[in-house]
Automatic annotation (TrEMBL):
Annotated protein name in UniProt: Transcription factor bZIP family
Keywords: DNA-binding, Nucleus
SUPFAM superfamilies (alphabetical): Leucine zipper domain
Stretches assigned to the BZIP domain: 62-77
InterPro entries found in the cross-reference section: bZIP, BZIP46-like, bZIP_sf
Location relative to the cell: Nucleus
Main location: nucleus
Keyword Transcription found: no
MF-aspect GO terms: DNA binding; DNA-binding transcription factor activity
Any GO BP: positive regulation of DNA-templated transcription
One Gene Ontology CC term in the entry: nucleus
Top-rank lineage group of the source organism: Eukaryota
């Protein structure tokens, strides 16, 4: 095949074979018997040039690296959110424990004031004996 200097155009020569039936070449390699008839093939030559292949590979590698970096950033953000949620959960648990403890104490004082007073009297009677009953 011989290029004609035009991109995408290749000349292909077609003619009689230069090899005889006995396997030996005619005229000892002389190609003068090949007919000069040729046709033009105007198509896209399949395959890529080595420069374009390298560019494609380089682009793919850059894209993979960017994707890995993005995934790493995403995992870091997720870990940060997870840590913050854990801290917030612990903090709110402590706040609620304190708040509900205070509420229980307040409820106990307001609802059981008489019971507390009576239990104090009973305790004093038990400790001091009959002396407290007279009071």
């Amino acid at each position: 095949m011989v290029g004609l200097g035009v991109p995408g155009v290749v000349a292909v020569t077609v003619g009689s074979p230069a090899v005889s039936s006995d396997g030996m070449g005619k005229n000892n390699g002389d190609m003068s018997s090949v007919s000069p008839s040729s046709y033009e093939f105007t198509g896209i030559v399949r395959g890529r040039r080595s420069g374009t292949v390298e560019k494609v590979v380089e682009r793919r590698q850059r894209r993979m690296i960017k994707n890995r970096e993005s995934a790493a950033r995403s995992r870091a953000r997720k870990q940060c959110r997870h840590t913050l949620w854990n801290w917030k959960l612990k903090w709110l648990t402590q706040v609620n424990r304190i708040r509900f403890g205070r509420q229980r104490v307040r409820r106990g004082i307001t609802m059981n004031t008489r019971t507390n007073q009576n239990s104090c009297r009973l305790m004093l009677i038990f400790i001091c004996g009959n002396e407290m009953q007279e009071l």
